[in-house]
Amino acid sequence: MGARTWISSWPVYRQLTGDDPLGRGRAARSRDTERLRARTATADRVVKSVCPYCAVGCGQDVYVQDGKVTQIEGDRDSPVSRGRLCPKGSASLQLTTGPAREHRVRYRRPYGTDWEDLDLDTAMDMIADRVIAARREGWQWEQQGLRTRRTLRFASLGGATLDNEENYLIKKLFTALGAVQIENQARI
């Protein structure tokens, strides 16, 4: 590479001699930068979604390529967030692709120190058995002479990642099971 070619590759040289005197456009770009493409440019489709972290309900554009999420950005059409996301919402891509995301059922036995992997059917059977046992052991037909037909052995606390419709169905399930301690934080 000649000296002239080498000097002309400097961003400052391009800034002073080119049509970008403030160095905000082409003058600041290297050859490597010119080859980069946004993850959003290669997406097959864009899916509208809502951020799962809090009760604000910021809109998100989820970019999908070959069935996999490649980028998540704020939805400019959202009247709630107008294209903006907080740091947690901006990092929500990690929910789908992060290396810390578990894709299996993990279980630690009472007083145990190690986690073990369970298949989903076994885990669901364990949960069902425990709900049935708690309901059977703690069922109250009446309290102080009043008919109650309830159990106080389990409760439901839904978070902001559940919308009102999901919490409605959870409320129906837990009410049918006899639980009375049912609360959620959904505001979406």
TrEMBL record:
InterPro entries hit by this protein: Mopterin_OxRdtase_4Fe-4S_dom (IPR006963)
Record's keyword terms, sorted: 4Fe-4S, Iron, Iron-sulfur, Metal-binding, Oxidoreductase
Presence of keyword Zinc-finger = no
Q: Which GO terms label this protein's molecular function in UniProt? A: 4 iron, 4 sulfur cluster binding; electron transfer activity; molybdenum ion binding; oxidoreductase activity
Biological process terms from the Gene Ontology for this record are: anaerobic respiration
Report the subcellular localization.
Cell envelope
Q: Which cofactor does it need?
A: [4Fe-4S] cluster
Per UniProt, residues of the 4Fe-4S Mo/W bis-MGD-type domain are: 44-100
GO terms for CC?
Answer: cell envelope
Give start-end of the signal peptide. Answer: none
Listed SMART domains: Molybdop_Fe4S4 (SM00926)
Q: Which domain of life is it from?
A: Bacteria
User: Which Pfam families does the UniProt entry name for this protein?
Assistant: Molybdop_Fe4S4
Similarity comment: Belongs to the prokaryotic molybdopterin-containing oxidoreductase family.
Please name the PANTHER family in this protein's record: FORMATE DEHYDROGENASE-O MAJOR SUBUNIT, TUNGSTEN-CONTAINING FORMYLMETHANOFURAN DEHYDROGENASE 2 SUBUNIT B
Q: What is this protein called?
A: Formate dehydrogenase major subunit
* Species the sequence originates in: Streptomyces aidingensis
The uppermost taxa in this organism's lineage are:
Bacteria, Bacillati, Actinomycetota, Actinomycetes, Kitasatosporales
